[in-house]
Design brief:
The protein has 579 residues and is mostly beta strands. It has helices at 15-28, 177-187, 342-350, 413-419, 546-551, and strands at 3-5, 31-45, 48-55, 64-67, 71-78, 86-89, 115-121, 127-133, 143-149, 163-172, 196-199, 216-219, 224-231, 237-242, 247-252, 255-262, 264-267, 272-278, 287-295, 307-313, 331-332, 370-381, 396-401, 404-406, 451-453, 456-459, 463-471, 480-484, 489-496, 514-516, 518-521, 525-533, 537-543, 554-559.
């Protein structure tokens, strides 16, 4: 429950000054307090009951609601045996990197019986984001929505909806996901896939024993609903559609976009999409499935199932319709794209454009100080002596950026950076381009072994960066949703095949490119992004397919302090967890 803190004025303060403070409050924002108790509790899905790690015994976890400009103080108390940290996905964390959350990057995890207060202010953001655990695979059950409303008195750039509904996609495992990834890392093989997808924690009627566990969205005719869609699934991009209804996309990753209509959308893990649903003008005498299933580009196994919720219209009171059972009505089902429909995926993301208005400009860096070219993809690492491994040709699966599989440190990178104690923790020599170039999307090289290291890129404050991320064909081309902490970035270009530095930049969109925090590197292709390194701290970048992050598809950027006081990282809080 959010509790705004409004200080009482000191005794005998002038009434006019007090009035001024009250008038200023909506502009400055308020302080909101939340408490997250991390506990184990039993949940039954698919006729299986298991103990899950959750927040406040809720699954999915509680909704965080705030306005642009508000300060959030979220106390996380760890009552479970696992180490815990929480990431506020998409929050810029301007100068407040200590609150970002990835374990061993910006903080040591919160140990059993310990607590930590995440303290941050929402600056210049409004829309839908989400929070999730950021250690191992605990985010399988530790996640929930973040709803950021505009400042009081500031309207949406579209008609105000009748109602707003968060819809968060997840993946359910009948076994403990921690055991799943632990076994995979030990054997070197691919992890077991999930048993179901969920909408707001519910798998729906297409799964065994789950008709009663179905999300139902009850609507009125002739109304508009803002659906706040969040993909919190561990390892799968998802297609989503509502039968016989058109959706209008208005926002992605808490950034307003030029509105466009679509019957189906694609949403990758780590991404959010706000859509307007306009209901039919009259009671339709029918119900409608809303379904999601994966978009698959890789060669590994995957959860080939479909989650369904139901869109139900409220019948007018005292009408013939009200006496008809919902179960008697026809149920329409949407037609989702084929599992590997890269053409649809490409066409969908190409429609996304920033609003680029006077009120919501697209401040794309027009000049570039530093260029980077990163290959992202899979690889192998050697099997340990006297062990049989289940990866390709008896090796272990790995993943890398520029062939560096990131080795997580045992102390937090941000703390080491802040204290000037990097020796033995990280080295600032992450390669700006592949050390050994090859035909990235052609015949893969014979040597697929990755290197290992805790390497980072160091950027001076306010450096303008252009980063091209190139998928590779090693162990099969695959789409990779890359998430950058601490920043939004502009997606200025993308294409298939190998990036051509001589021809492709001429086609970059520097006028109204989409701005976001998580972007899909196309399967067998590349994506180019630009961002301004205006946020001092240590910022993680990784694939949001959790299996790839576990295999090492991750790295970190260090942005140095600027010269002015408001360009420097704030000091660490007193309760920062220790390793």
């Amino acid at each position: 429950m959010a509790v705004p803190l409004i200080s009482s004025p000191p005794f005998l303060v002038f009434l006019s000054f007090f009035t001024l403070c009250l008038l200023a409050e909506p502009v400055l924002g308020i302080t909101r307090h939340y408490k997250f108790d991390i506990k184990l509790h039993n949940v039954t899905r698919l006729c299986r009951t298991r103990s899950i790690v959750s927040v406040n015994r809720q699954f999915p976890g509680p909704r965080i609601v705030a306005r642009e400009g508000d300060q959030l103080l979220i106390k996380v108390v760890n009552h479970v045996p696992n180490n815990i940290s929480i990431h506020w996905h998409g929050i810029r964390q301007l100068r407040s990197g200590w609150a970002d959350g990835p374990s061993y990057v910006t903080q040591c995890p919160i140990q059993t019986g310990q607590s930590y207060v995440y303290n941050f202010t929402i600056v210049g953001q409004r829309g839908t984001l989400f929070w999730h655990a950021h250690i191992s695979w605990l985010r399988a059950t530790l996640y929930g929505p973040i709803i950021i409303l505009p400042k009081r008195g500031v309207p949406y750039p579209f008609a105000k909806p009748y109602k707003e509904v968060p819809i968060i996609f997840g993946e359910w495992f009948n076994t403990d996901p921690e055991a799943v990834i632990s076994q995979a890392l030990q054997t070197g093989g691919g992890p077991n896939v999930s048993d179901a997808y969920t909408i707001n924690g519910l798998p729906g009627p297409l799964y065994n024993c789950s008709a009663k566990d179905t999300f139902k969205l009850k609507v009125k005719p002739g109304k508009t609903y803002l659906l706040r869609l969040i993909n919190a699934a561990l390892n799968d991009e998802l297609f989503f559609s509502i039968a016989n209804h058109t959706l209008t996309v208005v926002d992605v990753d808490a950034i307003y976009v030029k509105p466009f209509e679509t019957e189906t959308l694609l949403i990758a893990p780590g991404q959010t999409t706000n859509v307007i649903l306009k209901t039919k003008p009259r009671y339709p005498n029918a119900t409608f499935f809303m379904t999601a299933r994966p978009y698959v580009t890789g060669q590994g196994t995957f959860d080939n199932s479909t989650v369904a919720g139901i869109l139900e219209y409220e019948s007018p009171p005292n009408s013939l319709h009200s006496s008809i059972s919902i179960k008697m009505l026809p149920l329409f089902k949407p037609n989702l794209p084929a599992l590997n429909d890269t053409s649809f995926a490409t066409n969908f993301v190409n429609k996304l454009r920033s609003l680029a208005s006077a009120q919501y400009p697209a401040n794309v860096p027009q000049k570039v100080d530093k260029h980077f070219f990163f290959t992202v993809g899979l690889g192998t690492s050697p099997c340990q002596h006297n062990q049989t491994c289940q990866g390709p040709n008896g090796t272990k699966f790995a993943a890398s950026v520029n062939n560096v599989s990131f080795a997580m440190p045992t102390t937090a990178l941000l703390q080491a950076h802040f204290l000037g104690q990097s020796i033995g923790v990280y080295v600032p020599d992450f390669p700006s381009s592949p050390i050994t170039p090859f035909n990235y999307t052609g015949t893969p090289p014979n040597d697929t072994m990755v290197s290992n290291g805790t390497k980072v890129v160091v950027l001076p404050f306010n450096t303008s960066v252009e980063l091209v991320m190139q998928d590779t064909s090693i162990l099969g081309a695959e789409s990779h949703p890359l998430h950058l902490h601490g920043f939004n970035f502009f997606v200025v270009g993308q294409g298939f095949g190998n990036f051509d530095p001589n021809k492709d930049p001429a086609k970059f969109n520097l006028i109204d490119p989409i701005e976001r925090n998580t972007v899909g590197v196309p399967s067998g292709g590349w994506v180019a992004i630009r961002f301004l390194a205006d946020n001092p701290g240590v910022w993680f970048m990784h694939c949001h397919l959790e299996v790839h992050t576990s295999w090492g598809l991750r790295m970190a950027w260090i942005v140095l302090d600027g010269e002015l006081p408001n360009q420097k990282l704030l000091p660490p809080p007193a309760d920062l967890p220790k390793c």
